[in-house]
Design goal:
This protein is α/β, with parallel strands linked by helices and 290 residues long. It has helices spanning 2-9, 30-45, 62-73, 90-97, 150-161, 180-199, 230-236, 279-288, and strands spanning 12-16, 55-60, 80-84, 137-142, 167-172, 202-203, 209-210, 239-243, 264-268. It has eight helices and nine strands.
């Protein structure tokens, strides 16, 4: 997926792994992963060879929860937010993965007793954060998502749009959880491209904003799709920071090769089902199921 992103969006890619995944030390937690994402963003904003005014956070699944919190906490550093197949909260996902848990664990909109919520140490309640994001937000939803119900994305959009009039919701009828980008094909990439052109336009040297070929683009409504090799990304790139940068005077590449655009993306991938609630608690709950 990253190779195609480089080609279609003319971007560079800067990647890191959550603590406890890939080659990173430590144990994953909401607090720790939040600090990891913040450290990545701070690193980018301190660079002198990039346009730090054009950082876009792109999160898929758990990465969307991380990205939403990052965008909310950094309104002056993050230009836009893109969410793909993201859940409302881990509390709500507990009842999706193990249906009987919906009576005992749930998010703010749950009708259950929520008596076991205290056991979930990393709730990732995106639904309670998304309404505080002031930047433009693009929602990419795969309607065949086999892990996160598409209704979660619809609820996130409704909550965001109630407080932010710069939100766009796009559906991909054949998109599954990790391959929406693949199922969406050209329409998927064109959707992102137009969204970026409208909300993070490249700057001319005289300081004026422009779109591709100097024309003004109106953002069209499209839909979305999933990713290429999900296993490799889950293992190696629990959090992927994608960087789009213009190299007008610098050749220092944030990724493997310099490109001609000027955006920055932070891209997150889902960790693993075993980490959906908390590794120890989830494994314990699995043992309760015959």
């Amino acid at each position: 997926m990253v190779r195609i992103m480089l080609q279609r969006l003319q971007c560079n890619v800067f990647m890191l792994s959550y603590r406890g995944y890939g080659a990173s030390d430590g144990y994953p937690s909401q607090h720790g992963i939040t600090r990891d994402a913040q450290a990545a963003l701070d690193h980018l904003t301190q660079r002198t060879d990039i346009d730090t005014s054009r950082i876009v956070v792109f999160g898929r699944s758990l990465g969307g929860a991380v990205g939403t919190l990052l965008a909310k906490n950094n309104p002056d550093k993050v230009a836009t937010l893109i969410l793909e197949n993201t859940f409302t909260s881990i509390l709500d996902m507990a009842g999706v993965l193990l249906p009987f848990l919906k009576y005992f664990i749930g998010g703010s909109g749950s009708k259950g007793l929520r008596v076991l919520n205290c056991l979930v140490r990393s709730p990732w309640s995106t639904i309670d954060v998304i309404g505080q994001v002031k930047q433009p937000v693009l929602f990419l939803s795969g309607l065949q998502d086999e892990m996160v119900p598409p209704s979660h994305m619809q609820m996130l959009y409704a909550k965001a749009a109630a407080h932010n009039n710069r939100c766009l919701f796009v559906e991909f009828s054949t998109g599954m959880h990790m391959d929406t980008w693949l199922a969406g094909g050209d329409r998927y990439w064109r959707t992102i491209q137009l969204f970026l052109e409208q909300n993070v336009p490249e700057k001319k040297e005289n300081g004026q904003a422009r779109s591709e070929n100097g024309k003004n683009f109106s953002l069209k409504w499209f839909q979305l799709s999933p990713s290429s090799n999900p296993q490799n990304w889950i293992i190696n790139c629990c959090l992927t920071v994608t960087v789009l940068q213009s190299f007008h005077t610098h050749e220092a590449a944030v990724s493997s090769s310099p490109c001609s655009s000027s955006f920055f993306l932070l891209k997150g991938f889902i960790v693993a089902v075993s980490g959906i609630i908390d590794q120890r608690i989830f494994l314990f709950l699995v043992r309760l199921v015959p």
